[in-house]
Amino acid sequence: MKSVRSRSTGRTVAQLLLRGTVGGTMIAHGLKHGRSIDGTAGWFGSIGFKQPVRQAQASAVVEVGAGAALIAGAATPLSAAAVVGTMGVAARSVHLPNGFFITAEGWEYVMNLAAGAVALAAIGPGKYSVDHALGWDRKLSGGTAAAVAAGFGLASAGGQLAAFYRPTSTD
Q1: Residue 171 above 60 pLDDT?
Q2: Exposed site from 13, 14, 26, 92, fewest CB < 10 Å?
């Protein structure tokens, strides 16, 4: 039988791993978008987004901000919701019509980032986090935190798409 300390260490490693990989990936995407606002805006416009410059700016800010917050373990359910929302918009506007596999621009990659974010919200950011230091991880955790991340993220994606997305082709 494994010791409590061994299980605790494994959970801590899982929390740090999810925070680093999902958060780091989001920061990388946001920096890529932010380095070329005009190029990103052109792309957003080409796939059917109104106000593409604002969309490019918002994308860069949300992705970097959510990624940094996840790495720090700060406001984890809301940071995870930002990832879910961003990936929901990406799935609907780009990836769904292409099937599952990322090799064909499918939705497997965005689904995995969103699922990782929801899983992180469910297990919590861990003892080496801002949330833990402030006691926030004891106020919103487990299934409730996962539901907040998934629900608020999907609702935000729906709002973003309803307000700004007009598909350029029938998909």
Answers
A1: no
A2: 13
Q: Is 139 exposed, middle or buried (0-12, 13-18, 19+ CB in 10 A)?
A: exposed
Tell me the C-alpha distance between 124 and 91, whole Å: 25
**Could you tell me the two tokens for 150?**
């998934």
Distance CA 151, CA 149 (A): 6
Give the C-alpha separation, 124 to 131, whole Å.
9
CA distance 6 to 102: 36
- 9-38 exposure pattern, b = at least 16 Cβ within 10 A, e = fewer: eeeeeebbebbeebbebbbebbeebbeebe
Per-residue pLDDT, 8? 84
pLDDT digits (tens, 9 = 90+) for 23-36: 999 999 999 999 99
Q: Closest Cα partner for 153 from 124, 107, 123, 111? A: 111
What distance in Å separates the CA atoms of residue 94 and residue 58, rounded to the nearest whole number?
17
Per-residue pLDDT of 107-137, as tens digits, reads 999 999 999 999 999 999 999 999 999 999 9
pTM score above 0.85: yes
In this predicted structure, the answer to whether residue 83 has a pLDDT above a threshold of 80 is yes
Gap between the Cα atoms of 31 and 8, Å rounded: 34
